[in-house]
Amino acid sequence: MSDAATLTSPAQEARPVLRERGQREVFCGLTGIVWLHRKIQDAFFLVVGSRTCAHLIQSAAGVMVFAEPRFATAIMEERDLAGLVDANEELDRVVDRLLSRRPDIKLLFLVGSCPSEVIKLDLSRAAERLSKKHSPSVRVLNYSGSGIETTFTQGEDACLVALVPEAPVAADDAPASLLIVGTLPDIVEDQFSRLFNQLGIGPVHFFPPRNSQSIPEIGPNTKFLLAQPFLGETARALAERGAQHLPALFPFGAEGTTHWLKAAADAFDIPELHFLAVVAPGRERAKRALDAQKQHLAGKSIFFFPDSQMEPSLARFLSRELDMKLIEVGTPYLNRQLLSAEMDYLPATVTLSEGQDVDRQLDRCRAAKPDLVVCGMGLANPLEMEGISTKWSIELVFSPVHGFDCAGDLAGLFARPLYRRSVLRV
Asked: Is the backbone peptide bond immediately before 271 cis, with ω within 30 degrees of 0?
């Protein structure tokens, strides 16, 4: 990673962080399949897991029984170490059957989970074996979505790390290019593409791509912007390929999107006046949309439970652009390198917490009596029963929330629970 990305400001170093280690309430990394399978349109995600894994993915995705999604579960029944060879044979049969039925699959991910019978399997060797068997028609990769190792957004991070070695190596003298890293809805990707084109920045590639055959070259002249705050391992893997990280606020809200685009503009020597002319219309649209939501959010207090690693970025957006009062901003892992700019923009009074001891955090939340709590679904219903309005953090990953044109929708996701409770009280 670039030197700029590894620096922390004196304010960050002085900021106290409450670090907790205890019982936590999070989804596992398998959940990332729900948005990844929609993005890479010729890929398939085969979870090697249990019936519980299958129920989780099916429920999270909301897929109807007659749909044909690009994910499934190879259910490994309980077996001991003596049955390991049979488990590999069974996996091979499942993959063979899947690929014969779905010739549209060009990239297959074997996704590990946490049942003991799956942990015994060496999925990296299985992926290598199956990739040789089905080459060149299908590439087979693997990553872990185990809840023992990951929170739910880290599943995407692990997936993209597995995808980095598949990118062709760019020559040292290749022209400079921009890589946008992180899964974005197609509509948001198109909006950013238009902005970069108007700015005169190019070529611009997105990672992951919509098609696995379109993975761009990556090398020393690749500059990359992270679209999501939870891609720390992916950023490290790209840096090892020689790519240069462009530190910035994440593109949530008018301020964050402007800062994010400016990092790219500066890296490509775009004149200041041209940059301002290009971003001004979108920034003004975003500000108008945010003003419409501010009446529901200004002055309201909010408490973040750790779940997605998006919490510091979203808290910055809510505090600075919607005048919300931050009580506690919890995150599963506080990556100071990637969140350097975000932390400088957070109020000095807010409590930052890393990790989780759910009982202690619940006690702090109840004592603070916030107007709104952002948390996982497992905590939301009990808190709602206690009269506390909640927002599911997972919805903030599923929904289009990046960029100027989604700023109002992002604010609306936080305003809606407060509006709903005000109506129910009437």
From this structure: no
Residue for token pair 């109807």: 64
The residue to which tokens 């990305």 are assigned: 5
Q: Is 209 helix (H, G, I), strand (E, B) or coil?
A: coil
Q: What is the four-CA torsion angle of 120, 125, 131, 133, rounded to 10 degrees?
A: -90
Predicted confidence band at 1 (pLDDT cuts at 50, 70, 90)? very low
Pick from 246, 252, 207, 266: nearest CA to 414: 252
For the cut 50, the answer to whether the pLDDT of residue 163 exceeds it is: yes
Tell the residue number behind the tokens 């992002």, with chain if given.
Answer: 410
Give the separation between CA 16 and CA 341, rounded to whole angstroms. Answer: 16
Domains of the chain, first to last: 8-24+284-424 (3.40.50.1980), 29-150 (3.40.50.1980), 177-277 (3.40.50.1980)
Tokens 């055959």 belong to: 213
- Name which of 396, 279, 411, 399 is nearest 38 in CA terms: 399
Hey, is 241 helix, strand or coil? coil
Tens-digit pLDDT profile for residues 285-299: 999 999 999 989 999
Antiparallel, parallel or unpaired: β 301-304 and 204-207: unpaired
What pLDDT digit, counting tens, does each position of 359-418 carry? 999 999 999 999 999 998 889 989 999 999 999 998 999 899 999 999 999 999 999 999
Contact 301/368 with Cβ under 8 angstroms?
Answer: yes
CA angle 241, 246, 248 (to 5 degrees): 145
What's the pLDDT score for residue 270? 98
What residues contact 172, with CB distance under 8 A and at least 6 apart? 219, 220, 221
Cα separation, 24 vs 26, in Å, equals 6
Please give the full DSSP string across 319-375, using - where no structure is assigned: HHHH-PEEEEEEES---TTTTHHHHHHS-TTSEEEEEE-HHHHHHHHHHH--SEEEE
Closest to 50 measured CA to CA, from 27, 79, 77: 77
